[in-house]
Amino acid sequence: MTPKQCMAVGTAGYTAMLSVLALEKHGITPDQGPVLVTGANGGVGSVAVSILSKLGYEVIASTGRTEHADFLKQLGASSVIDRAELSEKGRPLGKERWRAAVDSIGSHTLANVIAQTQYGGAVTSCGLAQGADLPLTVMPFILRGVSLLGIDSVMAPKAAREEAWARLQQDLDLEKLELLSETVGFDQIVEKATDIVDGKIKGRVIVEIA
Ligand SMILES: NC(=O)c1ccc[n+]([C@@H]2O[C@H](COP(=O)([O-])OP(=O)(O)OC[C@H]3O[C@@H](n4cnc5c(N)ncnc54)[C@H](OP(=O)(O)O)[C@@H]3O)[C@@H](O)[C@H]2O)c1
Fold first, then answer.
1. What is the count of structural domains for the chain?
2. Which protein residue's CA is at the shortest distance from atom 27 of ligand 1?
3. Between vectors from CA 60 to CA 155 and to CA 160, what angle results, nearest 5°?
4. Which residue has the least CA distance to atom 37 on ligand 1?
5. Is residue 68 a contact partner of residue 202, using CB atoms and an 8 Å limit?
6. Which CATH number do you get for residue 108?
7. Which domain holds residue 115?
8. pLDDT tens track for 181-199
C-alpha cells in the first residue's frame, strides 16, 4: 500500500479490520447469515462494509443518511436500514435479524443490535458515536449465547497490528478505498472539522500536508 492508501485506511480502517478479525476468531463465517455494520457512512463503518463484502458476507448497512444508500451499495452493502430503527430504547430481545455486527455507535444502538442478533452470534464494540452507555439486559447473552467482543486499537499488541495491516492489504479492495476517501488541502481542515461535527463526512478524509 502507498503512504496515501495507509492514511486513507487510518485508525478507523485498521479498527474495522480488528473488528472483522474478532468476528472470524469467534467462528463467524459468511454462510451463517448477514452481518450488520452500524455508522456505515463513517470511517470505521465504510471500511468494515468494504472488507466484509469482499470476504463474501451479506452486509446490512445501518446509517442516518439513507440518501447515500447507493454509495453504501457500491462499497458492497446488500441492503441499507435507517439507524433510527436502532437508536431508541428497545426490547430486551427482538427478532433475530443478523448473525453478527460491527458496531461503532454504543448506547441504545448497540443494545438493540445485540438484542436482534441470532442465536450464537457475535457483536464487536469499538466506539461511542451515540454514547458511552450500554442500556441492555443479559437476555441476549443467557438465552441466545450472543457474545460481545471489545475492540481496542490503541494498546493492541504488535502481532495484532501486523495481522490487521496484512489482512487489509489482502482483503480491502483499493478501488473501494479510493471511493470512500477524499483528499483536502491543509487550508480546508477547519471546514472539514465542522463537517465532521455536523455529520456530513462520508468515509475518510486525507489531509495533504506536503
Ligand atoms: N476502539 C478503538 O480503538 C477505536 C478506534 C477508532 C474509532 N473508535 C471510535 O469509533 C467511533 C467511530 O469512529 P469513526 O472514525 O468511524 O467516526 P466517524 O467517521 O465520525 O463516523 C461515525 C459515524 O457514526 C454515525 N453516528 C454519528 N452520530 C450518531 C448518533 N448520535 N447515533 C447513531 N449513529 C451516529 C454516523 O454514521 P451514519 O452517517 O452512517 O449514520 C457517523 O458517520 C468513534 O466513537 C471513535 O471514537 C474507536
1. 1
2. 129
3. 20
4. 39
5. yes
6. 3.40.50.720
7. 11-150
8. 999 999 999 999 999 999 9
